[in-house]
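Hey, resending since the last one bounced:
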Amino acid sequence: MDRPDRPDDRLDGAACAACGHPVPPDAVRVLAERDDLAFAELSCPACGSVSLAIVLAAAPAAARPAIGPDDVLDMHRFLADYTGDVRSLFAPSRREAG
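The structure tokens again:
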């Protein structure tokens, strides 16, 4: 049976960011999903670490530039001062809504 919180098969083949061990599908939990982007929590059965994955749909991702180290640092800086929750992080801004 498919898990309702898994964005199709985009997370198959996930590996632990700490040790590289394969993370089984039942150890992946989708935290948020919007359009072609999902955030997922990966729990490694080998080393016990928990990491965050940013998952892009294959077709739209090919048309976008790759995420680089500077992008990751920018997001880290943004999230360091962020005080909202995941829902408000992905909510349309007032400029987009109106």
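The radius of gyration is 15 Å.

Sorry for the duplicate.
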